Amino acid sequence: MKILCVADQRSPLVYSTGIKERFKDVDLVLGAGDLPMDYYGYIVSSLNKRLYFVFGNHNLKHYDRLARKSQAFSFDPESVNQHSFGSILATGRVIRDKKTGLIIVGMGGSIDYNHGVNQYTDSQMYLKLFRLIPRLLWNKLIHGRYMDIFLTHSPPRGLNDREDPCHRGFKSFVWFLDRFKPKYMLHGHIHLYERNIPREIQYKNTKIINVFDYYVLEPEL
Ligand SMILES: [Fe+2]
Ligand SMILES: [Fe+2]
Protein backbone atom coordinates (compact mmCIF):
# COMPACT_ATOMS: atom_id res chain seq x y z
CA MET A 1 0.00 0.00 0.00
CA LYS A 2 1.22 3.50 -0.82
CA ILE A 3 -0.01 6.77 0.61
CA LEU A 4 0.85 10.12 -0.93
CA CYS A 5 1.13 12.71 1.85
CA VAL A 6 1.30 16.45 1.17
CA ALA A 7 1.67 19.56 3.34
CA ASP A 8 2.54 23.24 3.45
CA GLN A 9 3.45 23.97 -0.16
CA ARG A 10 2.58 22.85 -3.67
CA SER A 11 5.23 20.37 -4.56
CA PRO A 12 6.50 20.81 -8.14
CA LEU A 13 6.64 17.02 -8.48
CA VAL A 14 2.99 16.62 -7.47
CA TYR A 15 1.61 19.75 -9.11
CA SER A 16 2.77 18.76 -12.57
CA THR A 17 1.53 16.99 -15.65
CA GLY A 18 3.66 14.00 -14.63
CA ILE A 19 1.60 13.37 -11.49
CA LYS A 20 -0.33 10.42 -12.96
CA GLU A 21 2.80 8.65 -14.06
CA ARG A 22 4.79 9.38 -10.91
CA PHE A 23 2.07 8.47 -8.41
CA LYS A 24 -0.03 5.95 -10.33
CA ASP A 25 0.35 3.24 -7.67
CA VAL A 26 -0.83 5.42 -4.79
CA ASP A 27 -3.88 4.06 -2.91
CA LEU A 28 -4.77 7.06 -0.80
CA VAL A 29 -3.82 10.73 -0.34
CA LEU A 30 -3.47 12.58 2.97
CA GLY A 31 -3.16 16.37 3.35
CA ALA A 32 -1.54 17.73 6.51
CA GLY A 33 -2.58 21.36 6.12
CA ASP A 34 -1.60 24.85 4.93
CA LEU A 35 -2.50 23.94 1.35
CA PRO A 36 -5.00 25.63 -0.99
CA MET A 37 -8.09 23.58 -1.76
CA ASP A 38 -7.56 23.72 -5.51
CA TYR A 39 -4.28 21.83 -5.03
CA TYR A 40 -6.18 19.01 -3.36
CA GLY A 41 -8.68 19.22 -6.22
CA TYR A 42 -5.88 18.83 -8.73
CA ILE A 43 -4.51 15.76 -6.96
CA VAL A 44 -7.92 14.12 -6.58
CA SER A 45 -8.97 14.68 -10.17
CA SER A 46 -5.58 13.53 -11.51
CA LEU A 47 -5.19 10.38 -9.40
CA ASN A 48 -8.86 9.63 -8.78
CA LYS A 49 -8.10 8.52 -5.22
CA ARG A 50 -9.67 9.55 -1.93
CA LEU A 51 -8.02 12.41 -0.09
CA TYR A 52 -8.43 13.10 3.61
CA PHE A 53 -7.10 16.37 4.99
CA VAL A 54 -6.87 18.69 7.97
CA PHE A 55 -6.57 22.48 7.89
CA GLY A 56 -3.38 24.18 9.09
CA ASN A 57 -2.93 27.77 10.21
CA HIS A 58 -2.47 29.18 6.68
CA ASN A 59 -4.41 29.04 3.43
CA LEU A 60 -7.69 29.21 5.29
CA LYS A 61 -9.74 31.04 2.67
CA HIS A 62 -11.94 28.03 2.15
CA TYR A 63 -12.21 27.57 5.88
CA ASP A 64 -13.33 31.23 6.25
CA ARG A 65 -15.99 30.71 3.62
CA LEU A 66 -17.34 27.73 5.53
CA ALA A 67 -17.32 29.87 8.67
CA ARG A 68 -19.37 32.63 7.03
CA LYS A 69 -21.81 30.12 5.59
CA SER A 70 -22.37 28.60 9.00
CA GLN A 71 -23.31 32.13 10.26
CA ALA A 72 -22.16 31.09 13.68
CA PHE A 73 -20.47 33.58 15.97
CA SER A 74 -17.59 31.26 16.47
CA PHE A 75 -16.96 28.62 13.89
CA ASP A 76 -15.88 25.16 14.83
CA PRO A 77 -14.31 23.32 11.89
CA GLU A 78 -15.07 20.04 13.60
CA SER A 79 -18.75 20.63 13.05
CA VAL A 80 -18.32 20.46 9.30
CA ASN A 81 -18.28 17.15 7.59
CA GLN A 82 -16.98 18.75 4.49
CA HIS A 83 -16.61 17.22 1.09
CA SER A 84 -15.21 19.70 -1.37
CA PHE A 85 -12.99 19.40 -4.40
CA GLY A 86 -13.39 15.67 -3.79
CA SER A 87 -11.51 15.96 -0.51
CA ILE A 88 -12.74 14.88 2.88
CA LEU A 89 -12.11 16.92 6.00
CA ALA A 90 -10.69 14.67 8.69
CA THR A 91 -10.32 17.17 11.53
CA GLY A 92 -11.82 15.96 14.79
CA ARG A 93 -12.87 12.72 13.15
CA VAL A 94 -12.03 9.05 13.49
CA ILE A 95 -12.30 7.58 10.01
CA ARG A 96 -12.10 3.99 8.92
CA ASP A 97 -11.24 4.05 5.24
CA LYS A 98 -13.25 1.25 3.66
CA LYS A 99 -10.91 0.47 0.79
CA THR A 100 -7.63 0.32 2.68
CA GLY A 101 -9.06 -0.60 6.09
CA LEU A 102 -6.88 2.09 7.68
CA ILE A 103 -8.12 3.90 10.76
CA ILE A 104 -7.20 7.56 10.41
CA VAL A 105 -7.65 10.22 13.08
CA GLY A 106 -7.41 13.85 11.97
CA MET A 107 -6.63 16.95 14.03
CA GLY A 108 -5.84 20.28 12.36
CA GLY A 109 -4.63 23.62 13.65
CA SER A 110 -1.48 24.89 15.31
CA ILE A 111 -0.54 26.19 18.74
CA ASP A 112 -2.01 29.61 19.58
CA TYR A 113 0.74 32.16 18.87
CA ASN A 114 -1.27 35.26 17.81
CA HIS A 115 -4.93 34.28 18.36
CA GLY A 116 -5.39 33.66 14.64
CA VAL A 117 -7.80 31.28 12.95
CA ASN A 118 -7.42 27.58 13.74
CA GLN A 119 -4.93 28.18 16.55
CA TYR A 120 -5.46 26.50 19.92
CA THR A 121 -3.97 26.37 23.37
CA ASP A 122 -2.88 23.03 24.65
CA SER A 123 -5.91 22.90 26.99
CA GLN A 124 -8.24 23.45 24.06
CA MET A 125 -6.46 20.71 22.15
CA TYR A 126 -6.79 18.28 25.07
CA LEU A 127 -10.55 18.84 24.98
CA LYS A 128 -10.70 18.17 21.25
CA LEU A 129 -8.77 14.96 21.72
CA PHE A 130 -10.91 13.84 24.67
CA ARG A 131 -13.97 13.93 22.41
CA LEU A 132 -12.42 11.24 20.22
CA ILE A 133 -11.94 8.76 23.05
CA PRO A 134 -15.27 6.87 22.79
CA ARG A 135 -14.66 6.10 19.12
CA LEU A 136 -11.07 5.06 19.82
CA LEU A 137 -12.15 2.66 22.57
CA TRP A 138 -14.74 1.24 20.20
CA ASN A 139 -12.05 0.66 17.57
CA LYS A 140 -9.86 -1.13 20.10
CA LEU A 141 -12.73 -3.40 20.98
CA ILE A 142 -13.87 -4.14 17.42
CA HIS A 143 -10.68 -3.81 15.37
CA GLY A 144 -8.02 -4.60 17.97
CA ARG A 145 -6.32 -1.20 17.75
CA TYR A 146 -7.20 2.41 18.52
CA MET A 147 -5.98 3.77 15.20
CA ASP A 148 -3.32 3.42 12.52
CA ILE A 149 -2.54 6.98 11.47
CA PHE A 150 -2.76 10.24 13.38
CA LEU A 151 -2.97 13.02 10.77
CA THR A 152 -2.28 16.52 12.09
CA HIS A 153 -0.89 19.85 10.98
CA SER A 154 1.23 20.53 14.04
CA PRO A 155 3.90 18.22 15.45
CA PRO A 156 3.90 17.13 19.10
CA ARG A 157 5.89 19.20 21.62
CA GLY A 158 9.55 18.23 21.63
CA LEU A 159 9.24 15.90 18.65
CA ASN A 160 9.99 17.35 15.22
CA ASP A 161 8.89 20.82 16.43
CA ARG A 162 10.82 24.09 16.89
CA GLU A 163 11.32 26.48 19.78
CA ASP A 164 9.80 29.69 18.35
CA PRO A 165 6.22 30.52 19.49
CA CYS A 166 4.63 29.65 16.13
CA HIS A 167 6.26 26.27 15.66
CA ARG A 168 6.04 24.76 19.11
CA GLY A 169 4.11 21.49 19.07
CA PHE A 170 1.24 20.35 21.30
CA LYS A 171 1.99 18.60 24.59
CA SER A 172 -1.47 17.08 24.29
CA PHE A 173 -0.32 15.27 21.15
CA VAL A 174 2.48 13.57 23.13
CA TRP A 175 -0.11 12.39 25.66
CA PHE A 176 -2.30 11.18 22.80
CA LEU A 177 0.55 9.16 21.26
CA ASP A 178 1.41 7.64 24.66
CA ARG A 179 -2.17 6.63 25.26
CA PHE A 180 -3.43 5.51 21.83
CA LYS A 181 -0.22 4.34 20.14
CA PRO A 182 -0.77 4.98 16.42
CA LYS A 183 1.75 3.33 14.16
CA TYR A 184 2.24 6.61 12.28
CA MET A 185 1.80 10.27 12.98
CA LEU A 186 1.92 12.52 9.90
CA HIS A 187 2.23 16.27 10.31
CA GLY A 188 3.32 19.41 8.45
CA HIS A 189 3.82 22.99 9.71
CA ILE A 190 7.59 22.67 10.06
CA HIS A 191 9.09 23.75 6.76
CA LEU A 192 12.22 21.91 5.73
CA TYR A 193 14.50 23.97 3.56
CA GLU A 194 17.54 21.76 3.75
CA ARG A 195 17.51 18.25 2.39
CA ASN A 196 19.65 16.80 5.17
CA ILE A 197 17.27 17.73 8.00
CA PRO A 198 15.69 14.42 9.07
CA ARG A 199 11.92 14.29 8.68
CA GLU A 200 11.27 11.04 10.54
CA ILE A 201 11.58 10.26 14.21
CA GLN A 202 10.59 7.14 16.13
CA TYR A 203 8.74 7.85 19.39
CA LYS A 204 7.77 4.72 21.34
CA ASN A 205 5.27 2.87 19.09
CA THR A 206 4.91 5.72 16.64
CA LYS A 207 6.89 6.80 13.63
CA ILE A 208 6.43 10.57 13.40
CA ILE A 209 6.92 11.95 9.90
CA ASN A 210 7.01 15.55 8.76
CA VAL A 211 5.39 15.32 5.31
CA PHE A 212 6.31 18.89 4.27
CA ASP A 213 6.11 19.26 0.47
CA TYR A 214 5.37 15.61 -0.23
CA TYR A 215 6.19 12.19 1.16
CA VAL A 216 5.20 8.70 0.04
CA LEU A 217 4.41 6.41 2.95
CA GLU A 218 4.38 2.65 2.55
CA PRO A 219 2.86 1.69 5.87
CA GLU A 220 3.97 -1.51 7.58
CA LEU A 221 0.94 -2.56 9.55
FE1 LIG B 1 3.00 25.84 6.52
FE1 LIG C 1 1.46 25.79 9.47
From TrEMBL:
Report the superkingdom from the record.
Answer: Bacteria
**Residue ranges of every copy of the Calcineurin-like phosphoesterase domain listed in the record:** 24-192
Identify the SUPFAM superfamilies for this entry: Metallo-dependent phosphatases
- What's an example of a GO molecular-function annotation for this chain? hydrolase activity
Write the protein's name: Icc-related predicted phosphoesterase
Q: Which organism is it from?
A: Spirochaeta isovalerica
